[in-house]
Each structure stands twice: as C-alpha cells, then as structure tokens.
Amino acid sequence: MAFSQATLDFLMENRINDSRLWFNEHKAEYIEYVRDPMRSFVEALAPYMERIDSMIVCDPVRSVSRIWRDARYSNTLFRENLWCDLSRDRHIHMLPSFFFEITPVGFSCGCGCWETGSDFMGEFRRLILAGSPLFNDAVEALRGSGFALMDSRYKRTRHPDAPEWQREWLDQRSPCVFFESGELDVLFSEDLPDRIGARFAEIKPFYDFLLLVAHSVS
User: Fold this and answer.
1) What's the Rg (C-alpha) of the chain?
2) What residues pair up with 84 in beta bridges, in sequence order?
3) Closest among 206, 214, 191 to 98, alpha carbons compared
4) What is the CATH number for 48?
5) Which of 4, 162, 213, 218 has its CB 3.0 to 4.6 Å from that of 166, i.e. a possible disulfide?
6) 0.90 cut: is pTM over it?
7) Tell me, what DSSP letter sits at residue 82?
C-alpha cells in the first residue's frame, strides 16, 4: 500500500482543523491513507534494515509515531507529519536510529542520535579527534550522498584550533544527517521502500560510527 495525495491532504486538513471531533469523523481516512501505508512501508523496509543491522526493530505498530501530540507539552492536538523510527531499542535514547518522515509537502529520511547527553558527545568528539577509522569511513560515505548534517551546533565553537570541516562535527549538540525531498512521484511510488532502503545502506558507516560511540559509553 503506497502513500498518495490523499495522505498529504489528510495530514494538512487534520492539522488545520486540529479537532478530535473532526479526526474521529475522518478516522477511516486516516487509517486508509496515512496509518496503514506507513505500517506497510515499515514492513517493506525490514529486509533492508536487516542487512544494515540484524538487531534493528521494524515493528509496523510501535515504530510508527502517533498523529496526536502530548497535550501536556503542546497547544495543538494533532501533528501535520508522521514518521517511523527504526533502531535496536527505541527506549534507549543513546542508540542511533534511522527515520523516515512524511509531511504535506514531501518527505525526509536520515540517521542520528537524540538526547545523547554529555558522555555520548564527549566520546563522539574524542573519537573524531583521535582519527577514528569508522568516523573517516562515515565522512567518506556521506560525501556526495545527498545527506546533510543537521545543524545543531553551538553558537560559539569549542574547538577553535580544529580544521573547519572537523568543527562542523565537533560543535554539534547531537549528531544527525538527513535528506529531504519534495518529489511526490517518488513518495507515491510502489518502490519507495527500495529507494529508501538503498539510501539508508549508503550511510551505514555513519550508523556504525554512532553505534561505536553508544557502546563505548554504555
């Protein structure tokens, strides 16, 4: 089951209405056009993730985000985006994960770590400065891949003596790379899982480096 224009239309209309009543009246559309296509996507992606790391969990239910927000932290009820998060254990924040996200205007995908903490980032920087071969492999894999480093840098560098290309990594608060596209023909295609699986395989060295960091501080 592929995504379609109806998927994007629902995400936009649901967010604009931002109403439990509207959502419940259109829940069948949510299931048909949004939830089930994302679950099918996760299932289709599983063989590719198995080749990247056999311990990554591709659960068509638990790997998919909710469409509603936590009312304790937001003034709005519903999101305009939906994503899947694929990692070894989704409850351990330090482990790297792959993600795929859809919005009303397209999609994005990538890999990274969030809520990493000072121990993780300290080891991340130490390995970079030590010339870790896995980090060098990650940089090489990302070069020309179309994935960009998500900018979460501190405003002032903490490593003024490092080369500029290293500072881009060393000054990050959390490491994540992403690719985004507005090509709806790709998003709506039946071979989307094949394309995204291939893109994830390209950046496996980056995932492997983050996994090394996570294991070093666990």
Assistant:
1) 18
2) 64, 100
3) 206
4) 3.30.930.20
5) 162
6) yes
7) E
